[in-house]
Amino acid sequence: MSSKQMTSHPTRVERLGFRLNEQTKELIEQAAHLECRKLTDFCVTALTDAARRTIAKHETLMLSERDRKTFFDALINPPKVNERLARALAEHKRRIVS
């Protein structure tokens, strides 16, 4: 295994550029300094964490209280299988090879 493959951080080849006002830059620099981290490393980590939280928030199903109750009621008392559902299950079994 090469030394590049052993590092915990992949090689950074892409760039992301944006402008900040002075106060925001000073705030970010202070935070990076307090964590004893390089400014770039601090920013990349913060942006990555924020991106992951945003994606997770949008991928998470949020149910209203009524929807949650309906969902759990269907789990506890599932509806009877009707003809349409039986056909769908049969078609699914036909298509999926176990």
Automatic annotation (TrEMBL):
Family to which the UniProt record says this protein belongs: Belongs to the TacA antitoxin family.
UniProt xrefs under InterPro entries: Ribbon_hlx_hlx, TacA_1-like
Domain of life: Bacteria
Protein name as it appears in the record: DUF1778 domain-containing protein
Native source organism of the sequence: Candidatus Regiella insecticola
Keyword tags: Toxin-antitoxin system
UniProt-listed Pfam families: TacA1 (PF08681)
Gene Ontology terms: biological process: regulation of DNA-templated transcription
